[in-house]
């Protein structure tokens, strides 16, 4: 019995850590502080187009841009195969919804949340950002970006509570453990590479 209780406590520690680290860092699209850069995390493609969950994230980013609350959107996702390109699909979606192409920067090696946060800091030079994701993921995103050196606020977008939502919520229980290990050991991303001036150039471009 004691072993079971100890196991339960250990299982809850990563989630507790995330809640402590994120504190008051979660905001709505209406009250998030004005910030130069927003980071949108990939969430899958359907027939080459953003999945509904990813589209909701991109809609929130486009709205923040149109309202003048952000200046540049860093889209980070998976492009590990020629036939699968999250960042370009995200870019195309944003341009269709009013964000100028020159204000969008693509990270093609955002294979997971930790990689995206570390690359935002080390490759793209982002020190402060608004992070956009679903509610079940946003605390982990904020916690990991904080650990990676990106001062972050998180906006959790609404999502229909369908099978995908419940799967995402359940998956976070395991993902929280990996996130705690990433924060503790700070592994290098799967791909790091040279620094890229995309964000700096986008910020310097004309409105």
From TrEMBL:
<protein>
    <submittedName>
        <fullName>Integral membrane protein</fullName>
    </submittedName>
</protein>
<dbReference type="InterPro" id="IPR051599">
    <property type="entry name" value="Cell_Envelope_Assoc"/>
</dbReference>
<dbReference type="GO" id="GO:0005886">
    <property type="term" value="C:plasma membrane"/>
</dbReference>
<dbReference type="InterPro" id="IPR014729">
    <property type="entry name" value="Rossmann-like_a/b/a_fold"/>
</dbReference>
<feature type="domain" description="DUF218">
    <location>
        <begin position="37"/>
        <end position="152"/>
    </location>
</feature>
<dbReference type="InterPro" id="IPR003848">
    <property type="entry name" value="DUF218"/>
</dbReference>
<dbReference type="Pfam" id="PF02698">
    <property type="entry name" value="DUF218"/>
</dbReference>
């Amino acid at each position: 019995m004691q072993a079971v209780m100890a196991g339960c406590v250990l299982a809850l520690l990563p989630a507790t850590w995330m809640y402590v680290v994120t504190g008051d860092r979660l905001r709505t699209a209406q009250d998030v502080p004005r910030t130069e850069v927003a980071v949108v995390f990939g969430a899958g493609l359907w027939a080459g187009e953003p999945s509904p969950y990813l589209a909701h994230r991109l809609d929130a980013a486009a709205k923040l841009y149109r309202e003048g609350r952000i200046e540049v959107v860093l889209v980070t996702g998976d492009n590990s195969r020629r036939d699968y390109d999250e960042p370009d699909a995200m870019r195309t979606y944003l341009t269709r919804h009013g964000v100028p192409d020159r204000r969008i920067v693509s990270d093609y090696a955002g294979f997971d949340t930790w990689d995206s946060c570390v690359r935002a800091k080390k490759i793209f030079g982002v020190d402060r950002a608004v992070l956009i994701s679903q509610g079940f993921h946003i605390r982990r995103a904020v916690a990991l970006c904080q650990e990676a050196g990106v001062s972050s606020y998180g906006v959790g977008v609404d999502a229909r509570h369908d099978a995908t939502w419940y799967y995402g919520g359940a998956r976070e229980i395991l993902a929280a453990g990996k996130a705690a290990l990433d924060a503790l050991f700070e592994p290098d991303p799967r791909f790091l590479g040279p620094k890229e001036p995309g964000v700096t150039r986008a910020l310097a471009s004309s409105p």
